[in-house]
Amino acid sequence: MKRFLRLKEKEVKMISKIKNIFTVGCIMVYTVFSQNLLADQKVYIEKLDNGVTAIIKERDDTKAVSVQVWFGVGSVFEGDRERGLSHFLEHMLFNGTKFTKPGEIEAEIEKKGGNINAATSYDFTYYYIEIAAPFWEEGLTYLYYMTTAPLLSEDMIKKEKPIVLEELNRHLDNPKNRLWETYNKLAYKVSNYKHPVIGYRKTIENFNKKLVSDYFYSHYVPSNTYVIVVGNIDKDDVLLKIKETFGTVKGKKYTPPPVPLEKSQRKVRSKVIKKDQITRSYVAIGWQAPPVNSKESFTATVLEEILVGGRTSILYQKLKEKGLVQAIYGGYLAHRGTSQFLFYFVTDEKLIDEVKGIIFKTLNDLKENGIDKDLLENAKKKIVNREVFAREEVSHDAESLGYAASVVGDIYYDIEFTERIKKVSVDDVENFLKNYIKDNNYTEVQLLPE
């Protein structure tokens, strides 16, 4: 899974305001030299007069281009009447613009061999087109149409409601989704991470043109927009086109507010769910963790690699290799606000207590006996090497830059990602375990066969 997706959702005690790291009208070029990543990584950033942030990365090692438009808005910023509206708007933006008919943009992109899609999460929304380099301008223009001039008509809202409600039905029919919704409601008491991104039937049914339009024009504004273009392009040409399109958009200034923080959890929160359509048991156990914009987010990422990062990880060896679980996943699930560090495993009901015992014993052993330095260094090397391979894809480059700018509020989160990973020390990991992972402050949900 791509790094930023693993961080944001697998789908944080404190979030500062999005850092205003760009001065209006100021032009900056970030050049990073790293023997473990690209020899010469250049990222060009300019904040336009109207507040749009342009992020451009030239690459001559590819014939492809990824054009993406990120917004610092997701379900965590929705009000009670708006639950699911960020996701609903993702659908609506594909239903025609002031310049194009419904379906026209998708058809034109497909004709050119490209692909177009979007994603909505708790902390962000983004739209993207991946296409051959000669067609980057068309891709940028089409995303400009979609994200600044959607129709948002009442007819299209009525058309889209049954489609989204059917998606909700499929979501609710999946027992594992109920596990995660139950987990989030237990883990989060203050922030909107307790609500599902897709929303609720009642709120979706009540969406109307005024509500949809008001939400769009108050959140999808220039000051909350990040246009990212990565690939075989000329920076000056791309910047000019961004200014001619996104740079002309007007709108009220909006900065995503800090996400309310959860109080420190001081007791175990648990729940057991039983369903008759499953044959195996699914268990999620997690602890509160720092936000993605904290230094400790890199420590959490390294600890994830040590514990569940593939076949050589500690818990894979102790649980999967010995047949105690059918699968085990987990690690650092980052948010703007309070994050989670969790484990998710699939096993037979009679083995749950044994598996839990091994997980807790492993964590306590690491706290009491410390982290082996070679184990730490190997984990960091694996993360760095994975980044090298991932960055061969222009889409990964663009996604990582968009996530860093729009969610983390720090472009260096991406540019210096591997350098910061390499700086994680034994003390960092041991302190993280001692400060956050305890026997009396976790959340647990079990999904068992009826």
Q: Which terms would index this structure?
A:
2 domains, Cytochrome Bc1 Complex, Chain A, domain 1, 7-stranded mixed β-sheet, disordered N terminus, 41% helix, 17 helices, 450 residues, alpha+beta, 5-stranded mixed β-sheet
Polypeptide structure, described:
The chain is α+β, with helices and mostly antiparallel strands and 450 residues long. The protein has two domains: 17-248, Metalloenzyme, LuxS/M16 peptidase-like (Cytochrome Bc1 Complex, Chain A, domain 1), CATH 3.30.830.10; 269-449, Cytochrome Bc1 Complex, Chain A, domain 1 (2-Layer Sandwich). Helix content is 41%, strand content 20%. The protein is built from 17 helices and twelve strands. The strands form two sheets. Strands 1-2-3-7-4-6-5 form a seven-stranded mixed β-sheet, sandwiched between helices. A five-stranded mixed β-sheet has the order 8-12-9-11-10, with helices on both faces. β10 (327-333) and β11 (339-347) form a beta hairpin. α11 packs antiparallel against α12 (352-369). It is globular and about 60 Å long. The two termini are 32 Å apart. Residues 1-40 have low confidence and may be disordered.
